[in-house]
Design goal:
By secondary structure, the chain is mainly beta. It has one domain: Sandwich (Immunoglobulin-like). Helix content is 12%, strand content 51%. The protein is globular and about 45 Å long.
Amino acid sequence: MTKQWWLAVAGAFAMPAFACDELTVADAWVRLAPPTAPVMAGYLTLANTGKDAVTVRGGSSADFERVELHNMTHENGVMQMRKLDAIDVPPGGEVALAPGGMHLMLIGPKHSFAAGDQIEIVLQVCDGQQQTVSLPVREAAPAAADEHSQHSP
């Protein structure tokens, strides 16, 4: 077998990884919560500048027991929260994780946080690849409702 053949085979297996390299994160932040809160919420905008869809399957953090993807919906006059298995970011598209909608549910903080702290989250993307993002802790904007004030995991 020729060297070109092996390079072609290796290149074919490497191609799916490029889609994940096209995922960018903007407007990332974590809502400041009371020191005894069992959960916190993280928000960000995922943008896919590539030509293939990118799937975010969850996350992890050394600062929390678990990081899950959640979505808030308003059904029959009641706000409901559901865990999501994944979030798909379409090619050339954006998905906003924002108060009142999809968000990162940060469960079981291992210590308290103050405004200005940075929380590192490792996002699981594209079949096991990882992308680390840093989210600053800040107070919510005055107009934002606190969806998690009465929530427990």
